[in-house]
Structure formats: structure tokens, C-alpha cells
Specification:
The complex is a heterodimer of chains A (434) and B (373). With 434 residues, chain A is α/β, with parallel strands linked by helices. Chain B has 373 residues and is mainly α. In chain B, helix 4 runs antiparallel to helix 11, helix 4 packs across helix 12 and helix 13 packs antiparallel against helix 14. Classes of the chains: A alpha/beta (434), B mainly alpha (373). Chains A and B meet through strand 2, helix 4 and helix 5 of A and helix 4 and helix 7 of B.
Chain lengths: 434, 373
């Protein structure tokens, strides 16, 4: 029953899968048509090799659906024929991934891509056995340290769109405070001291998640300074029931806005039900627009346009230079690689203008998401001497803070693409981590 | 009640349209003939299904299935690997089931065997000679699996608890233990241990003739022959058969039933634990809650369909593996959803399982006109 429900709900989402087709960003889908014409003329005579794609899910799962869309759009834009791409669906984060990779190489693939973090170590194994084939582990973090020339990582600067989605949430929260809906008298549960509670459904206490929720929190805080965020973990990347339960737990604690780093529609559906039941609570989703399952509760979703990266990688592949794909690639609003989805009807007035303003500020560099003057860790502001420990030996080894700004996924300065912001900043409490 | 039966005159009893009669002594060639016919019929229904929901040529789809399972040397090795793992677990289950001890806890026994193997690899992988480490891993995983099976077996022989529920619940305990240790070993909190000893290859089963799975397939082949003789020729195998037929008979014959149950389950679960070791050391080099991957349940089908004959079980596991790998290939080649490929596997399995009915029973139809006369 649960499975059927999940499928139905995710189909509903897939139907509404608009990705980044919002007004704010130039969407790959809308421009794909014109680019096809250009590139079909300029495209080099087709390269012999094939592109193999290893996916953790299929079109029914939001995260994978976003990757499939990115790959298809990129291929279309570059005039890559359908039969030049071999798809492997529902490949678990197990030996199955290596089996699939070897099988793809056997079938003539010279570029193999996997979309889930857990695929990484198996991809690395395959990369070490087939040095002539390029392997890309999306969202991975070990390529630079692996010493393998044919093993690559890439990750969008999703923290930017998380921040913008936080701004959308902050605008809503401000509206609710200004019109007297959220006050200590009316909603005593929604306050810790003077701070308003917001919630976050997290997958695992992993750096990617920490970076994302911190950015979201800072986005909200930039509009409403007195917020307190509760992060609860589901300990799964995609679990409809668990995400729904976690959202309900956050609602019962009084959270007024709930965002998520989890792949299903569990949380938005639960929030929509609570809103219909008379609670004051709104949802900010991830990957895909949640309006299909939460038409009143969904404000927006932080999202990615993966086609930006895939176009870059496929162009290298067509040029016969797949080996030269950057070991670590990361782009954000600059190139349209991240975005927020269409704003829901419940968004506060002026949200679209504010979003455009913040996006422009991120693009021109005048706004930094992790500006150390906007948050504290353990009561003190971070300094340039503070670093993060990505080797887990208890000592900081990465020092990405320069002139009071923490630079996330800073590949241009030699840092890795996978997020590494793992400070626990003040105003956020975590619970439910295993 | 009795009176009623006699009140009714015999000739008023209506003979049903179909009688089901138990068949005795079906010759082996006929039984296998029926099974082959079932597979062919199943494939015909699959063809109808494919034609019905897609415009694809069923022969092309079957061709892709064949290609996926046996299309290249690496695919053949993948198929052999899956088959060997499945067979190894089935070999473990066979003695239990033959004794009518419903061990549905293979999943847990595999996981616990895999878990201790992974623990040893992590702890000693870089400090101990690989050969010695492998021996220790194999031994400890057998022991761990055996303990996992002995717990329900002890309660069964001592308090007559229900072993089906008990072994099933032990699966969940093992699963949670694995999840627990995955979180301890994974420092990044991403819920994945990753490949263990990737650089040093400590605790990895060596490649023979440049083949990752050669040694594993060889070990399972030896185990298959060993299990055949153990069940067919040894005294212990005979005791298992007697206890399975009737515990009272066994007791009357002077067999210590409790002891036989414990010993057999320990062997059975130990082999499943060993399968966990093979999975970790030879195949995946990691541990996760997906390490057993449902094979512990599929192996039950293999053991039963193979009638606990290791050679028949080899054929069955080959067929099942062939179909599942083939189904994956279909999904990739024709953009089938994986559920569609599972339907194909399901149809064929349904026919094979259904064919057992026609091997064990025969249908006798009412002869027309006889009653009227």
C-alpha cells in the first residue's frame, strides 16, 4: 500500500516537474529548442563511444527524475542521439553499481555517470580498473584524493538556492508576524523565548545536509532575525512515511515553516493536511515543485538544473576530451545551475521581487550566503583561522574562510565540489540523528 | 453427524466435475518434462504480455534477456556470481527445510556473517597477512551465522517455540545491528561504509585467473557436491530425513531429536553466514543493510523447487539468476520500468511453481453421460 501511494504521489510530482522553468532563471527546457538547431550544425561528427548512466531510482523518484531531465536536455541540446546513451535504472548503492559500470564499459561506454553519493566508492573501484574510461560520481567527494585521472566529481552550489528558498520562507514568516497570525499570544508553541520556531526534515547529519539547512536558515534569518530552527533526521534519503511522520512531529512542536532535505513528497503532503486542519504551517520543498501535492502549503522548492553540468561534460565527451572534465565542478546562480521552483499562491506579496534581488546579489558577488558576520558558532563569530575537518581525524584540514566569508564548494580555489560547511551554527538544534 | 451421512443414499451424491488425485511415483523424466512445458507456456504468456502492453517484438525482448545474462564474458561471470551466491544460501537452507525446520532467517544469518567479516576487514585488514585474515573471516562468519540460527533452534527444541516467527524476527535484529555499525564505521555520516580496504585489498578474496569470482564459484561448486553426499550418504543426513518425516519415529528409533535439530540448524545457518562472508569478501567489499538483498528468501524457493537435491537446486538457481539478470537488461534496453521486468519473472515463476501441482496431483474429469445411465 505504501509503495503504491508513493508511486502515485511521485507521479503527481513528476507531472508537475517543472524544475527551473520559473520566471527567475533561464530554463534549459525553454532554450533547448533553439540550441538544438545551432549545435546540430556545429556538433562534431559523432564520437564512437557511448554515455552510460547509472541511476539510483527511476522517473518516479524526484531526485533521479531531475537528473534524467538534465541528461536528456543536455543531450538534446548537443545533438547526441538517443541510442548513444545507455540508462541503468534502480541501481542500488551496492556492488550492483560496480556491476552496472563494468557492464556499461562492456557495452561501449567511454563516459559513465552515477547520480547518487553512495555509488561513489564502487565507481572509484571501476575507475581504477578501467583507466581509459571516464567516470563521474555526481555529488561525490573523493575524486581529488583518489589520484585517478579518470575519476570526477560534480555538485551544484545548491546552498545558494537553499538560501533563496529561505528568503521566500522568511518573507512568508514576516507576513504572518505583521498581520498578527504568529504572535506569542495566538501561537505560544511557536516560540522559544522571543524566537519563532521553524523546522527542517533532514536525511542524515551529513555535510551536504548541514550545509543546506544552514543556508536555508540564514536565508530566513536575513528577513526575520528572530528564528530558531529544529532539524529532525529521518536517517534515509527517501522515505515517504518517515518524512511525513517527521513533519508531523515538527508541526506538533509548533514550527511555522518546514523545509526538507529528503527526496519525497512526504513532508509537504503532511503540511498541507495540517494547514487544512487549521494549523499555521507552510512548506519549502526540494528538487521539484511541491505544488502538486500541497497547493496551499507549498511556497517554493530549492532546486537544481543539472543540464548545465551535463552540457559541459557531454561537450567534452563530444570533443574527445572526456578525460579533461574538471575533477571537481561546481556552479551556482552564475550559470543557472541552481534555482527555486515556481512560487506558490501562498507566498507573501513582494516575494518575487525580493527573490530576483537576492539572486542578482548572489550572482554579482555582493551577497555571500555564508557571510561570517551573519551567524555565530558556539557564541563566537568564525574567523579566517577556523577550518573544517573532512578527514575525520579530529583536526581541521580545510580552511575555506577568507576575509570573513566561508566559501562553499569553492572549486576555483582548489576546494572540492561536495559541500563541506559542517559547522553547527547557533539558533539551530538537531535531533533524531542515529 | 454420522447418522446423517448414512441417511443419504449413495447414488444421490453428485460426482464433481473434477477430482484431484495424488500421484505417486512420477518418473523423473516426466516431472522434468512437465516443468519444461511450464517454462515454455510461461514464456508464451510473457510474450503475450509484452505484445499486449508494448509494440515490441517478444523475440527481440527474449533475445535481450539472453544477451543480458550471457551476452559477454563479464556478463557470464556476473550471472555465475549471482548464481553461486544464491545457490550457497540454498545449500544452507536445504538441511533445515528437509528436517521441516522452517528457517526463514537466512537474510539475518547472511547479514551477521557479512557484518563480522566486514568488522575483521576494517580492524585487521591492513595489519594481518591476507591469507590468514581470510581464513579467520570465513571461520568467524560461519560461527556467527551458526549462533544466529542456534538461538531460535535452542528455543524450538527446549520450549517448542515457533521457529518461523523466531528466525524471521532475528532477521530484523541483524538488520538493525548492521545499520548500527554502518553508522559507527561511516565517519562522514552519509550512511555508507564504502569499499573497505580499497587500496590495500586486505581481506579481499584473491582473483584467480584474473577473475574476481572464480574462487567463489569454485568454493560453492565444492560445497554443492559436499552437501549432496552429506544429505544422501551420511548418517547425519539420514537422521535429518527421519526427523523431517516424523519426530516420533525418530525418537522411537533412538535419535536424539533435540540434538539433531540444533546440529542441523547450526550447519544450515553457518553456511548462510559463510554466504555473507563470500558476499563481503569476494563480491562487494562492503557491508550495508542491502548486503543480503532478499536472496535469503529467494533461496527458499530454490531449495524447495530443487527438492533439496543440490544438483537440481543448481539448475533452479541458474534459471532464476538468468531471469533476473535478463529482466534487468530488458529494463535497460527497452526503457521498461523495472516492475514490468519483474512481472515477466513473476509469470515464469508462477508457471514453474504451478507445474509442481501437476507433478504431485492429477486431475480426473467426470465422465460424461455415465451418471445418467
Amino acid at each position: 500500500m505504501k509503495k503504491i501511494l508513493t508511486t502515485v504521489l511521485s507521479l503527481a510530482v513528476a507531472a508537475g516537474l517543472a524544475g527551473c522553468s520559473g520566471s527567475s532563471t533561464s530554463a534549459a527546457t525553454s532554450t533547448a529548442g533553439s540550441e538544438t538547431n545551432e549545435s546540430s550544425e556545429t556538433a562534431t561528427a559523432s564520437v564512437d563511444g557511448k554515455i552510460g548512466v547509472i541511476l539510483v531510482g527511476d522517473e518516479n523518484e524526484g531526485y533521479t527524475a531531475a537528473h534524467m531531465e538534465g541528461i536528456s536536455n543536455a543531450a538534446k541540446a548537443l545533438g547526441i542521439a538517443d541510442d548513444q546513451i545507455i540508462w541503468k535504472y534502480n541501481i542500488g548503492e551496492t556492488q550492483d553499481c560496480k556491476d552496472a559500470a563494468i557492464d556499461l564499459v562492456d557495452s561501449g561506454a567511454t563516459l559513465v555517470i552515477s547520480n547518487s553519493y553512495g555509488h561513489q566508492s564502487f565507481m572509484q573501484e571501476a575507475a581504477s580498473e578501467y583507466p581509459d574510461v571516464t567516470f563521474i560520481s555526481m555529488t561525490g567527494d573523493t575524486a581529488a584524493d583518489s589520484g585517478l585521472a579518470n575519476f570526477k566529481n560534480a555538485f551544484n552550489q545548491t546552498y545558494q538556492s537553499r538560501y533563496v528558498s529561505g528568503v521566500v520562507a522568511g518573507m512568508k514568516l514576516k507576513e504572518l508576524v505583521d498581520n498578527g497570525t504568529v504572535t506569542k499570544e495566538a501561537l505560544p508553541d511557536a516560540f522559544v523565548g522571543d524566537d519563532i520556531k521553524i523546522g527542517y526534515v533532514g536525511a542524515f547529519p551529513y555535510a551536504e545536509v548541514v550545509s543546506g539547512y544552514s543556508a536555508f536558515y540564514l536565508g530566513v534569518k536575513s528577513i526575520v532575525p528572530n528564528v530558531h530552527m529544529i532539524v529532525e533526521y529521518t536517517n534515509s534519503w527517501a522515505d515517504q512515511t518517515k518524512e511525513s511522520e517527521t513533519a508531523n512531529s515538527l508541526i506538533s512542536k509548533g514550527c511555522v515553516i518546514i523545509s526538507q532535505h529528503a527526496d519525497t513528497t512526504g513532508a509537504p503532503s503532511a503540511i498541507q493536511a495540517a494547514l487544512e486542519g487549521g494549523k499555521t504551517v507552510y512548506s519549502v520543498g526540494y528538487n521539484v515543485s511541491m505544488l502538486a501535492v500541497a497547493k496551499d502549503a507549498a511556497l517554493t522548492s530549492a532546486s537544481n538544473d543539472w543540464s548545465v553540468y551535463y552540457k559541459y561534460a557531454f561537450q567534452k565527451f563530444l570533443d574527445g576530451q572526456a578525460m579533461d572534465i574538471m575533477t571537481d565542478w561546481s556552479e551556482g546562480y552564475d550559470t543557472g545551475a541552481v534555482c527555486v521552483t515556481d512560487l506558490g499562491d501562498s507566498c507573501a506579496e513582494g516575494t518575487a521581487e525580493k527573490v530576483a534581488e537576492v539572486e542578482a546579489a548572489i550572482k554579482d558577488g555582493s551577497l555571500n550566503v555564508f557571510d561570517c558576520s551573519t551567524f555565530t558558532v558556539g557564541g563566537a563569530a568564525l574567523t579566517d583561522a577556523d577550518g573544517v575537518d573532512t578527514t575525520f581525524d579530529g583536526e581541521a584540514n580545510l580552511f575555506p574562510i577568507k576575509d570573513g566569508v566561508f566559501y562553499e564548494s569553492d572549486v576555483k580555489n582548489g576546494f572540492r565540489s561536495a559541500p563541506y560547511f559542517s559547522f553547527r551554527i547557533d539558533g539551530i538544534e538537531e535531533s533524531g540523528a542515529e | 453427524m454420522k447418522k446423517n451421512q448414512f441417511e443419504k443414499p449413495h447414488d444421490s451424491i453428485k460426482e464433481p466435475l473434477v477430482h484431484i488425485i495424488k500421484r505417486e511415483d512420477v518418473p523423473a523424466w516426466e516431472a522434468w518434462g512437465i516443468r519444461i512445458v511450464a517454462v515454455v507456456l510461461g514464456m508464451m504468456v510473457c510474450a503475450l504480455f509484452i505484445q499486449g502492453i508494448t509494440d515490441l517484438n517478444p523475440f527481440k525482448v527474449f533475445g535481450s534477456m539472453f544477451n543480458g545474462a550471457l551476452g559477454s564474458s563479464s556478463r557470464i561471470w556476473q550471472t555465475l556470481k549471482d548464481m553461486a551466491l544464491l545457490l550457497c544460501i540454498s545449500l544452507g537452507l536445504a538441511p533445515s527445510f528437509k528436517m521441516r525446520f522452517w528457517n526463514v532467517g537466512a537474510e539475518g544469518q547472511i547479514l551477521i556473517g557479512g557484518l563480522v567479516s566486514a568488522a575483521l576487514m576494517i580492524r585487521f585488514g591492513n595489519s594481518m597477512p591476507s591469507g590468514i585474515l581470510l581464513m579467520i573471516m570465513a571461520g568467524v562468519s560461519i560461527l556467527a551465522g551458526a549462533i544466529w540460527g542456534l538461538i531460535p533452534a535452542y528455543f524450538k527444541s527446549r520450549y517448542n517455540t515457533n521457529e518461523t516467527l523466531f528466525t524471521l524476527m532475528m532477521n530484523y535484529v541483524a538488520l538493525q545491528l548492521v545499520e548500527f555499525f554502518v553508522d559507527i564505521w561511516d565517519k562522514k555520516q552519509s550512511h555508507s561504509v564504502g569499499v573497505i580496504n580499497s587500496s590495500t585489498k586486505g581481506g579481499w578474496m584473491p582473483y584467480l585467473f584474473k577473475q574476481q569470482f572464480f574462487l567463489m564459484v569454485l568454493i560453492v561448486a565444492v560445497l554443492t557436491i559436499g552437501m549432496y553426499f552429506y544429505l544422501k550418504q551420511s548418517k547425519q543426513g539420514y537422521e535429518i530425513a527421519v526427523v523431517g518425516e516424523s519426530e516420533n519415529t525418530a525418537r522411537y528409533a533412538g535419535i536424539n531429536v533435540a540434538k539433531v535439530i540444533r546440529r542441523t540448524v547450526a550447519i544450515s545457518a553457518g553456511i548462510c553466514g559463510f554466504a555473507g562472508f563470500l558476499e563481503v569478501s569476494s563480491v562487494s567489499h562492503t557491508i550495508s543493510s542491502l548486503t543480503a538483498g532478499g536472496r535469503g528468501f529467494t533461496a527458499i524457493i530454490v531449495a524447495w523447487l530443487g527438492k533439496f537435491n543440490p544438483f537440481a537446486m543448481t539448475l533452479i538457481s541458474a534459471l532464476l539468476t538468468f531471469m533476473s539478470r535478463g529482466a534487468n537488461q530488458i529494463a535497460s534496453d527497452f526503457n521498461f520500468n523495472k516492475h514490468a521486468s519483474s512481472i515477466l519473472t513473476g509469470i515464469i515463476l508462477f508457471f514453474i511453481l504451478g507445474s509442481e501441482f501437476f507433478i504431485n496431483y492429477k486431475l480426473v474429469f467426470r465422465k460424461h453421460g455415465k451418471e445418467a445411465a
